[in-house]
Design brief:
Largest sheet: 8 strands, antiparallel
Strand content: 15-25%
Organism: Heracleum sosnowskyi
Radius of gyration: 25 Å
Protein name: Indole-3-acetic acid-amido synthetase GH3.1
Strand order of the largest sheet: 9-10-11-16-15-14-12-13
Number of helices: 20
Family: Belongs to the IAA-amido conjugating enzyme family.
Distance between the termini: 45 Å
Structural class: alpha+beta
GO cellular component, one term: cytoplasm
Pfam families: GH3 (PF03321), GH3_C (PF23572), GH3_M (PF23571)
Number of strands: 22
Length: 593
Amino acid sequence: MAVDSILASPPVCEKDAKALQFIEEITRNADKVQQKVLAEILSRNAKTEYLERFKLNGATDAQTFKSKIPMVTYEDLQPDIQRIANGDMSQIMCSHPISEFLTSSGTSAGERKLMPTIKEELDRRQQLYSLLMPVMNLYVPGLDKGKGLYFLFVKSETKTPGGLLARPVLTSYYNSDHFKTRPYDPYNVMTSPTEAILCVDSFQSMHSQMLCGLYERQQVLRLGAVFASGLLRAIRFLQLNWPQLANDIRTGSLSEKITNPEIRACMARVLRPDPELAELISKECCEENWQGIVTKIWPNTKYLDVIVTGAMAQYIPTLKYYSGGLPMACTMYASSECYFGLNLNPMCKPSQVSYTIMPNMAYFEFLPHEPNSTRDLPTRKLVDLVDVQVGKEYELVITTYAGLNRYRVGDILRVTGFHNSAPQFNFVRRKNALLSIDSDKTDEAELQTAVEKASKLLQELNTSVVEYTSYADTKTIPGHYVIYWELLVKETGNSPSNEVLNKCCLEMEECLNSVYRQCRVADNSVGPLEIRVVKNGTFEELMDYAISRGASINQYKAPRCVSFTPIMELLDSRVISSHFSQTLPHWTPETRR
């Protein structure tokens, strides 16, 4: 069912009115916009190796395109992408020069994906960003009277053998002139200095951004980070470091731990002795109970601006606790491959978030998601943007200006309705993702490999892993992976020691992909992996419980990831020992495995 026009509410200024009118126009004519986008992409890329390989012969219509161009995954494109990464400058996938690679979540082989992009994609991303505040201003008045405290960070950059930069999409955006020289907008003023955001040392960056937010606590009207996990990391940082932050404010001098010259120079303009503010921060932060700490420190906060859909939904209760129940706004839906759309009702409940696809961003198709279907993939016909059905689930397939053609993104979406003729979607989950704390994503095959590798350390003790399962523990900050092991100890007097099982934890981490290890080593956004050894017979009890709830004994398989509270309680009640990685796994910015 179509929602009411967003123009039903009066925009706050002429700039907002133009942005909202643009949304109305492209969503009202979604099919026409989509055909134009596809024709533009195919016309400009007609002479590329990729399209010539499938003998498209310059055709720009959807029917010919669909009949000749196959649906692909990253693994299918990897040989072409590797050629570009190695320095091949010919028109392989795109007629425009590849400007850099945007790194994405790991492949099944544990490598970080490299997504080729072109300079004009920055303009397309900036256009979507420019629509966010005009929509938000319809729901939250007066945002021009204060500032946003956003914890934003860059990550390490590497270069491919051919010399092209490879970095996450947000690192690319924050380093661009679109961000660094953005014009003043009273509705989008942030407390964090650009110098602090662009510092690759996460501690120095966080310290400086938090300090600026504390100095301007009365001006802060919204708190945000990209993901919910990022905002919780900031709160945890405040818990651990408030004495030093209060001392900086009390004395008006920056901690000696902050050595970055650009940060020290910009913070010199911010710092001033304020004993009264330092005392307030000390008084609030020294309390054991941190419930509602956000509104105690930043009393004028109207909402939290964070993604809490998909895997991030696990953080909602913790955010509610720390914020005192502030609304959580999920504003946009994007990935390294493409920016997709925005939430036209950003103040809705997290469980009701729907993203409206902006039809000008790329050419969109949708593969009906039938997890239990026995039909071959080719017989499941892709559906156009305007033809999806409410209530149905689909996997997103995109064709982009940068040279991805009928590319499976791996996101599972559920249609909730339409805005004009553009569909709106719930983000359901990442396809095949099993565990996720931050930007990491670990699938079942990867977890299995890690368990097998770690369990080899037990062989000399004549011990083996009988069964295992896992869950992403987000009650700790940062969150961490928990792996439940049931062991078969064949020599009673030779059971694995705490030291050996700690080594098993590290061995598992070494087997996980580079995205996970970067989160552990460089970003500190994931905590040490934990193995909890459970009593013998625990997984039989788990099966008995599942059968009592209707599972078939013939088809039962131990779940490789659990989240259902009664199952968690059963497992935890059977734990006989817990073990953690004692050191960090190996990771360097050059590592992609």
